[in-house]
Amino acid sequence: MDKNNLIFGTGFNENPKKFSKKKFINSINYCLKKNINFFDTADNYFDGEIQKIIGKFNYNKKIKIINKFKLLNDKKKLNENLENSLRNLKKECIDFYMPHWPTHNMNLNLLADFAEENLDRKRIKFFGLSNFNLEMIKKFKKIYKKKIFIQNEINLCNFYYNKKLIDFCKQNNIGIFAYKISDNFFLEKKMDYLKHSYSNYEISLMWIKSLNINPIIKSLNLINLKRNITTFKGAQKINLSLKNNYVSVPINKINKISSGSNVVYNSLSEAKKNKKNLYPSPIDISKEIKKFGLLKPFFVKKRQKGYELLSGQARFWAYLILKKRKFFKAILVK
Which of 199, 233, 267 is the last residue before a domain boundary? Predict the structure, then answer.
């Protein structure tokens, strides 16, 4: 990839009741019509059904696929899963293939061997890492010397948390795919030339493109899709003045915890017992943090008294299990 590419994301399984197969196919057709040929998917998106839908468009040889897979310390199983994805996608080779999430007990040597073998077999063109932090990427690059790509959550809000990772990737010719590019939108003030009609999402698109990062967009609304594609293709370079919002927060000031799953633990003891079966469990995540550091930042919001933890509940308890500190670093959301 020698230039910025806009990528259509296909991970709609977060809200399965809102998913429309017809709208999804219409979105793919519209992207192809507008020469958006990169599609991001994963083995577990609707248990492979998304892959099969994309596979029906394989007559278009320009289509490029980013596919994420479950990381296992079993090369035979990894190869079986790769072949299954190739069948679903009706392809002989996947363009970008990467583990979806790291694990605390992952074998990086085995992973590198798996990547090398399948590049040689021409079953994949490029290998990558999804949701790996900087330390994990550095360790893998010491073993695997070929070019890689990464996929991480990068946006205006978490920029200062990711800045060292972005700089390292640019210095080492590592391509970046960014998802959730407008989550927890954070900007002290819009520049004058951005005030007229751009949405937060469009500002994020222009900013991401200015960083030479490839954004992943996701929409089943053709009006929004059209507007975002138009914005990206005509994006002006912008230089936003961002305030460092990665701050130290007193742990004892967290007095509200939010969770997208509606599962909330109110004490360290509850989190350790994990009776509501969070997966991975806070204890498992604590092992991962001990070995590799945090994968994602915490997000907090100031309340009248104290702070609300907006995301990362399991990581929060895992951090407490491991660190037992009075402060932790978090992204402050306005």
Answer: 233
Q: What is the pLDDT of residues 92-144, one digit of tens each?
A: 999 999 999 998 889 999 999 999 999 999 999 999 999 999 999 999 999 99
> How many domains is the chain built from?
2
Q: What is the pTM of this model?
A: 0.89
If asked whether residues 255 and 225 sit together in one domain, one would say: no
Q: Are residues 141 and 45 part of one domain?
A: yes
User: Which amino acid makes up residue 10?
Assistant: T
What is the rounded CA–CA span in Å between residue 86 and residue 164? 35
Residue-wise pLDDT for 217-256, tens only, equals 999 999 999 999 999 998 777 777 788 889 999 999 999 9
The parent domain of residue 250 ranges over 246-333
In this structure, the answer to whether residues 251 and 314 fall within a common structural domain is yes
Average pLDDT over residues 316-327: 85
One-letter amino acid for residue 196 of the chain: H
Residues 132-147 have pLDDT tens digits of 999 999 999 999 999 9
259 assigned to some structural domain: yes
44/174 same-domain check: yes
Residues 179 and 297 in one domain: no
